[in-house]
Inverse folding.
């Protein structure tokens, strides 16, 4: 079975801390949530997926939780037209925790089905990153449609049909670019981390 993110304790602590710092910088400089009109294009899933692939599922879940928590806080500190959606912690946090879980499951499946090798590892990382990103998009948009369509229609002065079209459009204009970005950036960053010295006590 393919092993994901098995590294030394020292390395795990250092890289997890570095990724947490990156997420905080992204959050407070708005690099992580790039506001475009009434919606935000996110890059916060990148550190989450890098943490998963480089340091394991627990690290990915922790970073996913931080992503969701920062999104929840940001909905209060810098509210937008649709701020109320992410003020519900069930919307802002669980989908972000499931980003690394979905990516991890897919990478394990690819590792079982494909031949072992450098190319297999890279392909599994690409697929895992894309699936993790799309998991976030699908869950967020699905929950928006289920629970917030009436409030969205009121906030945007849309009809219910227009809200549905708006949500599908977000999936294309935000979700797909975010997934493509993840599929390119995450494997490249993980490859760079792979070249770091392996120090500390083996797990």
């Amino acid at each position: 079975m393919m092993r994901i993110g098995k590294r030394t304790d020292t390395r795990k602590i250092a890289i997890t801390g570095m990724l947490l710092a990156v997420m905080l910088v992204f959050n407070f400089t708005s690099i992580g949530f790039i506001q475009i009109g009434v919606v935000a294009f996110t890059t916060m899933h990148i550190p989450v997926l890098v943490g998963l692939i480089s340091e394991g599922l627990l690290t990915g879940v922790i970073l996913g939780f931080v992503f969701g928590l920062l999104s929840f806080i940001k909905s209060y500190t810098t509210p937008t037209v649709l701020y109320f959606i992410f003020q519900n912690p069930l919307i802002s946090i669980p989908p972000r925790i499931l980003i690394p879980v979905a990516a991890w499951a897919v990478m394990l499946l690819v590792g079982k089905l494909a031949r072992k090798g450098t190319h297999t590892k890279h392909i599994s990382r690409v697929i895992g990153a894309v699936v993790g990103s799309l998991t976030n998009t699908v869950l967020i948009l699905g929950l928006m449609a289920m629970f917030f369509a009436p409030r969205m229609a009121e906030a945007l002065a849309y009809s219910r049909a227009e809200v549905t079209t708006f949500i599908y459009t977000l999936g294309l204009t935000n979700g797909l670019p975010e997934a493509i970005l993840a599929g390119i950036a995450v494997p490249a960053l993980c490859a760079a981390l792979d070249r770091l010295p392996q120090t500390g006590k083996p797990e």
Q: What stands out?
A: Residues 160-194 form the longest helix (35 residues).
